[in-house]
């Protein structure tokens, strides 16, 4: 089997469940990330070991496993990040949140930035890559997630601090000893009742810890982070949230009620309300 034949075989196998467009995209990622083959390159014959890996890969994909977990790589804001089922797969809308932060805080600024619920470290690592002078920190309650984030920082040579923290508890001395100019979070926000409308791939493979909140308190993490950030943010500091389209207005109202100024909501490129930002003016 050649690389071109494998690419087409993946498309043929996955098109019935993914559609031709997504199947083609998955095929490209598999060939690039696992077999080092880019479209347009000279085709080559796969070794026996590669053919065994190819069949195993196709079976995992047909079983609904996300391609990023199969390859172990997720692309995010120009970075290649290691991912596994201990972390969420970074989404394009999170790239838009990073873009908003960079838009409002130019190059050369001295910024201390904290990402709460960092997962793979995608947000602080993307910010550090574009703003090398910033001091970026990511915290998470999952030690497994932090291992992934630390590995990504080391692989990318991006000096970023990662620490284990449960934001539902009192902020640690480390967090309180700094005055953060930016706090950002994409926290869990899905109530269990919405399982029925979620993709089987997400439910079966991505970490529940990073997805779900109590049914009777869907804004739990937004409220806790909003309250804690009043202590942690420097004067004039900004708090940024990623939300889903259904709770965006509620999160904005929560921030206003907690005394944040200039609260602004933004839509993503799909026209859905997905981001909120507010400033702390004491």
UniProtKB/TrEMBL annotation:
A Pfam family annotated for this UniProt entry: PrmC_N
Whether S-adenosyl-L-methionine counts among this entry's keywords is: yes
EC number, as in UniProt: 2.1.1.297
Domain named Methyltransferase small: residues: 109-190
According to UniProt, the reaction catalysed is: L-glutaminyl-[peptide chain release factor] + S-adenosyl-L-methionine = N(5)-methyl-L-glutaminyl-[peptide chain release factor] + S-adenosyl-L-homocysteine + H(+)
Q: Which UniProt keywords apply?
A: Methyltransferase, S-adenosyl-L-methionine, Transferase
GO molecular function ontology, one term from the record: peptide chain release factor N(5)-glutamine methyltransferase activity
Q: Would you kindly state one Gene Ontology biological process term found in this protein's UniProt entry? A: methylation
Is Cell division among this UniProt entry's keywords? no
All residue ranges annotated as the Release factor glutamine methyltransferase N-terminal domain in the record: 19-72
Family matches, as Gene3D superfamilies = DNA helicase RuvA subunit, C-terminal domain, Vaccinia Virus protein VP39
Enzyme class of the recorded protein, top EC level: transferase
* Superkingdom of origin organism: Bacteria
- The identity of this protein, by name, is peptide chain release factor N(5)-glutamine methyltransferase
């Amino acid at each position: 089997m050649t690389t071109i034949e494998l690419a087409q075989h993946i498309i043929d196998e996955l098109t019935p469940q993914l559609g031709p467009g997504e199947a083609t995209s998955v095929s490209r990622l598999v060939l690039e990330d696992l077999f080092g083959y880019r479209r347009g390159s000279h085709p080559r014959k796969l070794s026996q070991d590669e053919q065994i890996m190819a069949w195993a890969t196709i079976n995992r994909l047909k079983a609904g496993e996300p391609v990023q977990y199969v390859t172990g790589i997720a692309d995010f804001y120009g970075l290649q990040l290691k991912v596994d089922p201990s972390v969420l797969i970074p989404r394009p809308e999170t790239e838009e949140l990073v873009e908003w932060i960079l838009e409002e805080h130019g190059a050369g600024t001295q910024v201390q930035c904290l990402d709460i619920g960092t997962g793979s470290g995608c947000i602080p690592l993307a910010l550090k890559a574009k703003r090398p002078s910033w001091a970026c920190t990511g915290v998470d309650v999952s030690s497994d997630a932090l291992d992934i984030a630390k590995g990504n920082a080391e692989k990318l040579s991006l000096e970023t601090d990662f620490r284990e923290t449960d934001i539902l508890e009192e902020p640690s001395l480390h967090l309180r000893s700094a005055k953060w100019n930016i706090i950002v979070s994409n926290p869990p926000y899905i109530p269990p009742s919405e399982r029925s409308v979620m993709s089987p791939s997400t439910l079966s493979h991505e970490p529940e810890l990073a997805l779900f909140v109590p049914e009777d308190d869907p804004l739990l993490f937004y409220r806790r982070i909003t309250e804690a950030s009043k202590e942690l943010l420097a004067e004039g500091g900004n708090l940024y949230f990623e939300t889903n389209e259904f709770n965006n207005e509620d999160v904005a109202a929560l921030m206003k009620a907690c005394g944040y100024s200039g609260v602004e909501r933004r839509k993503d490129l799909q026209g859905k309300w997905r981001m909120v930002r507010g400033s702390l003016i004491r």
